[in-house]
Specification:
By secondary structure, this protein is mostly beta strands. It has 2 domains: 91 residues, Rossmann fold (3-Layer(aba) Sandwich), CATH 3.40.50; 105 residues, Hexapeptide repeat proteins (UDP N-Acetylglucosamine Acyltransferase, domain 1, 3 Solenoid). 11% of the residues lie in helices and 31% in strands. It has 2 helices and 23 strands. The strands form 4 sheets. Strands 5-8-11-14-17-20-22-23 form an 8-stranded mixed sheet, covered by helices on one side. It has a 6-stranded parallel sheet with strand order 6-9-12-15-18-21, with no helix packed on it. The longest helix has 13 residues. The protein is globular and about 45 Å long.
Length: 213
């Protein structure tokens, strides 16, 4: 049986542990072996049946290992998982059994779809995307690699999320709008116009409050 290793032992990592344990493949195709995290004390206050195996930099992927990315920050997960990929790590994607995934949905490697998320139809989801609980993805949406969507987001039809974009909890993207690469949409924001690359927007309607361009 394969060994599943969760990359990241922070809050999202502990959540992902629960989602993985509830997955029908757990105990059949793989078993959860533990976490990788650069903070050896990340689980000290918590009671988990598995622990931290090593820091990312110290771990060499084995042929029997599978990896699951549980890092929220797009920049950090790209750096950390990119290093593991360069060492030959094999990442899997995981959709919780309560997630609803419709017709003609493409899901990239390393992506996590959490409980009660909804992905409707004709959607393309890139690699290493995190779609958190109760987030909905409308028809014809395109999500690039390394994107993180927090809980309760509403990404409506024909929108596009650029590489490494981040959506805070409860963010809403109106139809046909584009969120640029590395942009951040603050919690509770309502996006009614395109968000430029590297911009940070917040509010209803969402307005730029910081941009690197």
């Amino acid at each position: 049986m394969k060994r599943l290793i969760i990359v990241g032992a922070g809050g999202l990592g502990r959540e992902v542990y629960a989602w993985a344990e509830a997955h029908p493949d757990c105990g059949c195709l793989w078993e959860i072996a533990g976490f990788l995290d650069d903070n050896p004390a990340a689980l000290d206050r918590f009671d988990y049946p598995v622990g931290i195996l090593a820091a990312v930099v110290d771990y060499s992927p084995q042929s029997n290992d599978l990896f699951l990315c549980a890092i929220g920050s797009p920049a950090i997960k790209r750096r950390v998982c990119g290093k593991l990929l360069g060492s030959g790590a094999e990442f899997i994607s995981l959709a919780h059994p309560t997630a609803v995934i419709g017709f003609n949905v493409e899901i990239g490697v390393g992506t996590i779809i959490c409980p009660h998320a909804i992905v409707t139809c004709d959607v393309t989801i890139g690699d290493f995307v995190a779609i958190n609980c109760h987030t909905s993805i409308g028809h014809d949406v395109r999500i690039a690699d390394w994107v993180t969507l927090s809980g309760h987001c509403d990404v409506t039809g024909q929108t596009e999320l650029g590489e490494m974009a981040f959506l805070g909890s409860g963010a809403r993207i109106l139809p046909l709008k584009k969120v640029g690469a590395r942009a951040m949409v603050g919690a509770g924001s309502v996006v009614i116009s395109h968000v430029p690359t590297n911009a940070k927007v917040f509010g209803n309607p969402a307005r730029i409050f910081d941009s690197e361009d």
